[in-house]
User: Fold this.
Amino acid sequence: MLRAGSVVLGVSDVPRAAAFWMEALAYVPRKDREDDWVVLVRAEGAGVRLALYDRARTSFAWLTTVRPA
Assistant:
């Protein structure tokens, strides 16, 4: 069985996106927020986390690196 632990979204304004998703999903920040990254979790407990990152300031290029077989 496959289970999602986190959904990661690149956004242009992390505080604004966090405010929207916290209101829409009743989520809260897992830890203190940063200007370019925040992880939101369900206020009631277990569930899928929502990670928001500033796509203009954070590079995840290493995730797409293809290694020779």
